[in-house]
Amino acid sequence: MTDSSVDLANQLNRECDCVGTDVTALQLSLSDTLTECGLRQPIAATHPHLFSEAPVFIAAAHTRQMQSVIDAVEAVTRLDAYRESVLRSAPEIARAVPANDGVFLGFDFHIAADGPKLIEINTNAGGALLNLEAMRARRECCRPEVDAGEPPSTAEQLEEELFVMFLREWRLARGEEALRRIAIVDANPDQQYLYPEFLLFQRLFESHGIDTVIADPKELSFVSGVLTHRSGKIDLVYNRLTDFYFADPAHRALAEAYISNAAVVTPHPHAHALYSNKRNLAVLSDEATLRSMGVAEADIATLLQGIPRTIALEGAEEQWWSDRKHWFFKPAMGFGSRGTYRGDKLTRRVFAEIMGGGYVAQRLEPPSERWRNTAVGKTIFKIDVRNYVYAGKIQMTAARLYQGQTTNFRTAGGGFASVFPSPFGAC
Known about the structure:
There is one protein chain. The protein has two domains: 334 residues, no CATH class; 56 residues, 2-Layer Sandwich (Dna Ligase, domain 1), CATH 3.30.1490. α4 packs across α13 and α6 runs antiparallel to α7. 35% of the residues lie in helices and 23% in strands. The protein starts with a helix and ends in a 5-residue tail after the last strand. It has 15 helices and 19 strands. The strands form five sheets. Strands 2, 3, 15, 16, 17 and 18 form a six-stranded antiparallel beta sheet that branches. α8 links the parallel β4 and β5. About 1% of the residues have low confidence. By secondary structure, the chain is an alpha+beta fold.
């Protein structure tokens, strides 16, 4: 029997046309904040489709199921057999176990007819502070009819929790030593699409008295056991690089500081190897492998229900080609939907390239939909649900609305969307 919260969430996502986020007000307030941080152009001009006004409704039952999948993944990652399996093929830099956990795991789900499906795990999931800013512009959309339990955290409370998360990372690695300087690191940071969020993190850290720089890794040096920037010694690196194992020669200083434990790096290569290499999903969705590792039967059942079957792509090229419409193809070390393909959209040329190695095939689980009435009629957006997770617990949940094969910020009316829990009353 279907949970009533599921039926209501589905109904609201198809019929409710209310505004969940006042995007105009959000863009104005965010532009004012970012101007103070040194950003010159208004966010509405540079990122017109970053936020959606449409709310997304998530059933309480689905939230519980997503947490259950996360719990099961966490249980597996603690097993020696799993760690030995996934770390065996990881680069040397990823095999050492740091004292800190790593911030901002992103567990991304599609909500299928039979429940949430975990499609990937990211180790440097972006957008958390941007979604907190959107919370400040949230509008009451639908009136709760029943007691939904504890009131949700405010943006201010969540922002403080995120800062405490970084402080916990530091304490795990350095105890009571003073945290004086943080570097937010990415390649060409001011050219990154989410650079505005880097500025928000800088503001957050500095509001707690911690000097913070935004730096390209080429601006860092490692001399005499110390990671430094022109501003001085770096204590903690908030790592936003997609070079997950610091293999680029330009990232050598960061790699050496991490290997020698001269700076606390979060998230780190070990976390990526443990969670985010997409080949790991092949392990987590294979019943025989899970059982051979000693995974608890309840966790096996949760994982098989909650993760689409994923297989390392190799051999039997014609068989894969004939069955391609049932699969989504992803680079094992990919990020941000780059190089991903729905099987029914593949050409023979591209298919031959991905069969060359480094890809996984994931059973296709289409995303759920958000319907909106617009000036041109009914518009349908796809929904991708992102859970920001730390130490196994969901900190906050956001949705991304989009059209096309994969998530993007190019869809008019799409972007980050506020998540409202069901049950709710009628609009």
